[in-house]
């Protein structure tokens, strides 16, 4: 979302791309610049042309990730965003997680092998040294296209052993795995899915404050990355 992207755009002092590297007519926005010797690009999927809301969800995330890799040939992708957390797994509002694994919870295909394809389990980039240096929590991320959670989704999330849930991570993971680009998933908790407050209300109430925390966390990640090869992370 734009609210998630702008704190990072400001932190890295990036500028908006005047001549889009993306196909004409797409709403995707690129901010770019240099930071501590790194070429940094932040891609925001933009607004829906008809409804004017942020282009969230797995379809948009997949397309943007693919287009960005094709246009920019990055060495590393950081999927930074907010997520819901589960108090039963120890998550609290404002916690920042590095997702070690990503999977889907709403692609249910009850046919042998297709069921595994639907879950789409993939590993995040291994970053043992980064984790030693930074004090983020680590957990599994489950992705779906709905903000709320049905009983079927809940069962799938439990089966995924997920601590956090979002609406794009596993889709990004699918594309980065397909094109062999390492990816790190940094997620900050805006709402407690198994708490006593409605998810949508808690998400909107905490969004601004948590995106500030997300911006600080991603800045720390990029600070650590600067001057290192991916294999050193």
Automatic annotation (TrEMBL):
<protein>
    <recommendedName>
        <fullName>Nucleoside phosphorylase domain-containing protein</fullName>
    </recommendedName>
</protein>
<dbReference type="InterPro" id="IPR044580">
    <property type="entry name" value="MTAN"/>
</dbReference>
<dbReference type="GO" id="GO:0009116">
    <property type="term" value="P:nucleoside metabolic process"/>
</dbReference>
<dbReference type="GO" id="GO:0019509">
    <property type="term" value="P:L-methionine salvage from methylthioadenosine"/>
</dbReference>
<dbReference type="Pfam" id="PF01048">
    <property type="entry name" value="PNP_UDP_1"/>
</dbReference>
<feature type="domain" description="Nucleoside phosphorylase">
    <location>
        <begin position="20"/>
        <end position="222"/>
    </location>
</feature>
<dbReference type="InterPro" id="IPR000845">
    <property type="entry name" value="Nucleoside_phosphorylase_d"/>
</dbReference>
<dbReference type="InterPro" id="IPR035994">
    <property type="entry name" value="Nucleoside_phosphorylase_sf"/>
</dbReference>
<dbReference type="GO" id="GO:0008930">
    <property type="term" value="F:methylthioadenosine nucleosidase activity"/>
</dbReference>
